[in-house]
């Protein structure tokens, strides 16, 4: 009888530095507004991202929700009071007619140039645990920079969660 293997899940994503690393600067870090009012958030890229920017909403205890992709394309079910615009390096995201449920954290994400992702998978067998490191050649579907423009956006949620955690760790170290 073969030992049973139980998949425990993806343990760790990490991104390696690349010569085309694009930095995004989002502002303001916080803002206040009145119900029915309008707010605008801006994101500036360190280089031209060819309109490949997405905007996410994140509420505590929930996963990120994709609102807009390719600068201004609303996802199905997203109200038209959410909008995005921009080109080159400068982009903005607005919410008009603010409602109480709009209270959240909003993030921009460029996907013109995504770095390769390496995954470490931990599996548990009857003989103990083992770790396997999988690079891009073994898992071509996870080499995001090869097909980012065709990547189905809801699949970016897990990656986004990890990127947010990575940035929070960086901020805590400062």
Automatic annotation (TrEMBL):
A cellular component annotation (GO) from this entry: extracellular region
Domain annotation Ig-like: ranges: 3-108
Q: Which SUPFAM superfamilies match?
A: Immunoglobulin
- What Pfam families does the record tag this protein with? V-set
Species, as recorded: Mus spicilegus
Protein name per UniProt = Ig-like domain-containing protein
Under PROSITE patterns, the record lists: IG_LIKE (PS50835)
> Which PANTHER family does this chain map to?
IMMUNOGLOBULIN LIGHT CHAIN (PTHR23267)
Q: Does the keyword Metal-binding apply?
A: no
- Record keywords: ATP-binding included? no
Q: Name one GO biological process term.
A: adaptive immune response
């Amino acid at each position: 009888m073969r030992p049973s293997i139980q998949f425990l899940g993806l343990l760790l994503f990490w991104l390696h530095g690349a010569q085309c690393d694009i930095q995004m600067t989002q502002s303001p870090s916080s803002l206040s507004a009145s119900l029915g009012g309008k707010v605008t958030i801006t994101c500036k890229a360190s280089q031209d991202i060819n309109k490949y920017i997405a905007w996410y909403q994140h509420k505590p205890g929930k996963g990120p929700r994709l609102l807009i992709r390719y600068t201004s394309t609303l996802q199905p079910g997203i109200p038209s009071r959410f909008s995005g615009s921009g080109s080159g390096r400068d982009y903005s995201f607005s919410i008009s007619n603010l409602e109480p449920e709009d209270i959240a954290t909003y993030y921009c994400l460029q996907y013109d140039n995504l770095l390769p992702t390496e995954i470490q998978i931990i599996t548990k067998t009857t003989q103990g645990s083992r770790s396997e490191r999988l690079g891009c050649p073994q898992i071509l579907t996870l080499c995001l920079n090869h097909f980012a423009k065709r990547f189905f956006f809801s699949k970016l949620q897990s990656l986004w969660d990890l990127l947010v955690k990575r940035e929070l760790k960086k901020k805590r170290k400062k």
